[in-house]
Amino acid sequence: MIKEKIVEPARPPASLQQLRAGNASHSDAGGENFKENLVLNSITDRSANKPEIDSLVEGPVILIEKSSVYVDLAPFGIGIIYGREFINAKDVINKISLGDIVKAKIVETENEDGYTELSLKEAKQALAWSEAEKSIKLKTILNLEVKDANKGGLILEWQGIQGFLPASQLKANHYPRVLDSDKDKILKELKKLVGEHISVMIISTLPKEGKLIFSEKDSNPEEKKEILSKYNIGDSLDCVVAGIVDFGIFLKLEDGLEGLVHISELDWGLVEDPRNIFKVGDKIKAKVIEIKDGKISLSIKALKENPWKEFEGKLKKGNIIKGVVIKYNKHGALVSIKEGVAGLVHNSTFPSEIKLREKLELGKNYNFQITLFEPKEQKMTLIHLE
Q1: Average pLDDT value over all residues in the chain
Q2: Could you give the residue range(s) of every CATH 2.40.50.140 domain in the chain?
């Protein structure tokens, strides 16, 4: 569940009120003196409870330039929307005027110029995820168009978020009845539903993957509760792969009940695409790791030896290690020191994301220093050593 903090701003200090009142007419000019005053106020107008990255904040727009927007986040300072975030939200920014109150998400608490970097697009997404969680609790019925289909189910979209409706969660009149279970024939039947509107409920959210899970089946809380009562956290189960998606696999536990193995629970090592490892119909053992809100979450890697245990008491902050770069993501580079044990080199440790990727090439070994090591949480951060 997403737990976004919405920080309620206090009334702007007099200095910012004066800036807003005295410089609104200069919004197009973007004079250097005005911008210097913004930086000064951004540095000096601070609060002990300064919002953190991913917090939602709101405040009035106090300056609009050709490639940036400034927002009064008193008493925390000045927020700025620029660069990629400005481009991504251009359609919204074109409708904004001075004095408008905007909600935004913090992506950087303080940049080199002293501003708090904001994202309008991410704020909109965060609010949508919050609405999705409410929809689950209220069991809201949604009438959505089927956008596409794959061999595992249907692709839907809600408030700009793509979602997946597993075939096992379809009602009987929509379920593909194929005698020989031929995957191509199943896909052909599912494709017939593209363009139709069906009534569904959101049953799970996966914000990290930007995905929703839907169900078309009527929910009978008592019946579902009775079925789930047979299962306990820690149970090792014999399952069958019922569906494969980019964020994991669905396992059939019994008729009418499936559990999700998230991609992060498939193996201790890096899994890029579950389809390269599993296929529908595979028989697999999995462990129950969570039963919540009528859903069962499973893990395959939990039944394998945890490679992080090998390093408990052996590695700590400050140690120098050698590792191989195995993947880039939006935060930086993942570095493996052993199969299943990897740490993050954050973009912030380099002048830019581009510089990081130029310096740390995929598949190559480098020396790193550990800046955080928590084996029980499977967390490690690193910095590159020249």
Answers
A1: 82
A2: 6-121, 139-215, 223-303, 307-384
Of residues 64, 17, 84, 7, the one with CA closest to residue 45: 17
Q: Which CATH number applies to 139-215?
A: 2.40.50.140
6-121: CATH number: 2.40.50.140
Give how far Cα 108 sits from Cα of 88, 112, 136, 148, 207, Å: 16, 10, 31, 36, 20
Q: Which CATH architecture has domain 223-303?
A: Beta Barrel (2.40)
* Cβ atoms < 10 Å from Cβ of 136: 19
List the Cα angle 197/216/179 in 5-degree steps.
Answer: 95
User: What are the residues whose beta carbons fall under 8 Å from the beta carbon of 285, sequence distance 6 or more?
Assistant: 236, 237, 238, 239, 300, 303
Please name every residue paired with 72 in a beta bridge, in sequence order, or none if there are none. Answer: 78
What is the CATH superfamily name and number for domain 307-384? Answer: Nucleic acid-binding proteins (2.40.50.140)
Reported as a single tens digit per residue, the pLDDT across 195-218 is 999 999 998 888 878 889 998 875
Cα–Cα distance list, 184 to 190, 236, 247 (Å): 10, 32, 22
Phi, psi of 15 (to 5 degrees): -60, -40
* pLDDT at res. 16: 44
Q: 25-46 pLDDT, tens per residue?
A: 334 444 555 555 554 454 444 4
What residues form DSSP beta bridges with 365?
A: 324
